[in-house]
Amino acid sequence: MSGSLRHMRLAARIAVFCALALAACTTTPPPPEQAVPAPMAQPAIPSQYRPEEIVGRWGYGAFHKDADLARTAAAARGQCGQPVEITRGPNGGVMMYLADSAQLQELQLKGSQSGKNYIGPPGDAGGAQDREIVSFDGRTMVLRWMDAEVAGRYGTGVYVRCAPEGAPRAAGKPAMKPPPQ
Prior knowledge:
- This protein has four helices and nine strands, in the order αβαβαββββββαβ.
- The chain has helices spanning 2-27, 51-54, 69-77, 148-154; strands at residues 45-46, 56-63, 84-88, 94-97, 104-111, 117-120, 131-136, 140-145, 156-161.
- Strands 2-3-4-5-6-7-8-9 form an eight-stranded antiparallel beta barrel.
């Protein structure tokens, strides 16, 4: 009988140990995931840019590494055969697409107290759906998505202004020769 009693005590100890181990698993929550904090939106003030400066035909490209900016801008220039058209919105903004949207929406140019400028839906500057105007010289515009998840998918956008329709080709780029007659 003593052998059977030992087995029962051993089984009881194992059961208690398993119960404690399981209790520890269910009462100790896993550590929270380290999330990237959302950007802090600020009350919008007038942007240093005007919608008229943004309206036009643009070649578009995107990059994920800052070292790729020059290469991407050159590639965007080549997209002028199928340009992105940014037009004036009915309420004074510009018509552009938001992330993951197939519909044009009127977006506002917004400034912030920190001196940064944004393009996005009405509301505070630097919101999750906004794009920061990283640089803009009238010919090339670099826009970075404020939402980190969206920026990770779409990258930083580079817009290169295309020549107006019907404008002569830029110097150094020969026009196609007509066929000999």
